[in-house]
Write a structure and sequence with these properties.
About 40% of the residues lie in helices and about 15% in strands. The chain has helices at about 10-20, 55-65, 80-85, 85-105, 140-160, 180-190, 210-225, 240-250, 275-280, 295-305, 305-310, 315-329, and strands at about 1-5, 25-30, 50, 70, 110-115, 165-170, 170-175, 195-200, 205-210, 230-235, 235-240, 260. Strands 3-2-1-4-5-6-10 form a seven-stranded parallel β-sheet, sandwiched between helices. The chain has a three-stranded mixed β-sheet with strand order 7-9-11. The structure holds nicotinamide-adenine-dinucleotide and thymidine-5'-diphosphate. Nicotinamide-adenine-dinucleotide binds next to helix 1, strand 2, helix 4, strand 5 and strand 7.
Length: about 325
Amino acid sequence: MRVLVTGGAGFIGSQFVRRLALQGERVVVLDKLTYAGNRANLEGVDHEFFEGDIADPAAVAQAADGVDAIVNFAAETHVDRSIMGPAEFILTDVLGTQVLLDHARHHGIRHLQVSTDEVYGDIDLDAAPCTEDAPLRPSSPYSASKSGGDQQVLAYVRTYGTDALITRGANTYGPRQYPEKFLPLFITNAFDGERLPVYGDGRQRREWLHVEDHCAAIEVALRNGGTGEVYNVGGQERENMDVVRRILDLTGASPDLVRHVADRPGHDRRYSVDSTKLRDLGWTPGRSFDTGGLEETVEWYREHREWWEPIKSGDYKRYYAQQYAARLG
Ligand code: NAD
Ligand code: TYD
């Protein structure tokens, strides 16, 4: 199989490229190399690389030439950046998805859309996990743009009969995650003795999914999933403050670094999804957050300063000041 992986230089996409390449599949990557894209993530991985924008039909036509399937990871992905400026999110997550779908439609190939559990919006503490038919109630410009991408996928299936499907993954963690997201931000700040900015009361709950389990799930859906189907990919649900305490334990950092800061506007309290449908299709997650998963991840960041130190300079510092300077005082 020859597969186009868009966003293949990012956190989850690069792990998926590594996974397919190790199986001997031919992988083509199309990536715009935004601030989150990093060629180093693909070092030593057999693939063909095109730098370009998924919203550019010419770039897509060139990279997708002769592929059997498209797996779309390319997206603007950070909720806080979407609150600072939503426009880029619409262009990539909605328009870019539509451009890829057009290619899949005209060439009769499969399009797998990598989406998120955030499209369901937050749910009450006592609510049952969302199944795939739950209504979409996105809260942030990020999740609204991902919902727009999902709706395009479903519209292409229904209107044109395009062979497309969707996975909706939970909060993903592991090596090579850009240190703007909660886990790599807190782990690397803890190593550096920097403050740990907890939004609001820290009682929000997320499901944590190891990046390898997430990639395994996407592969199962790509190979065995049905056209027009949606598959949730859940993880282990934990309260943010419990995760912070575990990070302090594992890094040996002082609890004095923790600061409760002004909350994120519109902050979702809880995500939880039911992954029975994907398990029935053959997905078996192998990592546990508490026994091994988080610890290995902390160790990876401890041992790979050469990966994250260059990232946490330059533009990152400007972003960090904009997002946290007033909050941290
Ligand atoms: P990331 O931010 O680490 O990487 C995104 C990649 O997409 C980068 O390499 C970037 O350069 C590329 N990109 C951005 N805009 C592009 C464009 N217009 N054209 C081509 N390439 C472009 O993201 P990630 O965390 O690896 O997430 C990958 C996908 O998984 C996203 O679609 C995201 O919505 C979804 N997802 C992420 C999580 C999570 O916890 N990280 C959870 C569920 C779903
Ligand atoms: P994040 O990694 O941004 O993912 P999500 O898309 O789920 O918002 O954040 C995960 C959780 O951590 C979320 O409840 C927000 C919280 N958080 C903080 O408390 N402080 C921070 O600096 C960040 C980035 C996130």
